[in-house]
Amino acid sequence: MARGPAALSDAELLALLLRTGIQGKGVLQMAHELLQIVHPDTDGFGGIAGLLNATADDLKRVKGLGPAKRAEIIAVLELARRAMAQRLQERPAFSDPGAVKHYLQLHLSAKPHEVFAVLFLDAQNRLLAMEELFRGSLTQTSVYPREVVLRALHHQAAAVVLAHNHPSGSVEPSRADEALTQTLKAALALVDVRVLDHIIVAAGQACSMAEKGLV
């Protein structure tokens, strides 16, 4: 309390959350093990990023981490998601592009399958809602422009941010990603809804197609 939380290491901060270890394993050792978690569907990101992307099943692999402690860690992750959502709801999303990427990473990067999601924004680019609309490989499962348009009209959105995850770990846009972006951009333009970006996320990283000039 005297020196502030920034003075503590990642493991020490996590140890404060865990509070106690188990016989033969101190709380700091348990914290270090948690920071070494690697999700089996990623390319090996550990540390805080790996922990934030961990699922409840991933946490079960740490010996001594019971249901109560697992629930606390999952709750912290959910609080982080909600804090970011509130920030995006209260001010224009693109006043802080990094917050948009972090928000999407927390929601999508840990999923073992490909998910296509849309952020629906108002005229001031504030977040109205986020919806996961399609699942499965985007090369095999169609993303229906009509459904995206209908959801945009439902939310009375003025703009959208498209997003999907790459479970493989690479965030480089593919030709299919570029083609899908242009198809959705044309469909949404018919109802006067702008596509501001298409963000691809994986564990520990995110790519903005707008920043690459692809939107």
TrEMBL record:
Keyword RNA-binding among UniProt keywords: no
Gene3D superfamilies, alphabetized: Cytidine Deaminase, domain 2
Transmembrane feature ranges: none
Keyword vocabulary terms for this entry: Hydrolase, Metal-binding, Metalloprotease, Protease, Zinc
Domain of life, per lineage: Bacteria
MPN domain location: 93-215
SUPFAM superfamilies: JAB1/MPN domain (SSF102712), RuvA domain 2-like (SSF47781)
First and last residue of the signal peptide: none
Claim: Glycosyltransferase is one of the keywords in the record: no
Family listed: Belongs to the UPF0758 family.
UniProt name for this protein: DNA repair protein RadC
Taxonomic classification: Bacteria, Pseudomonadati, Pseudomonadota, Betaproteobacteria, Burkholderiales
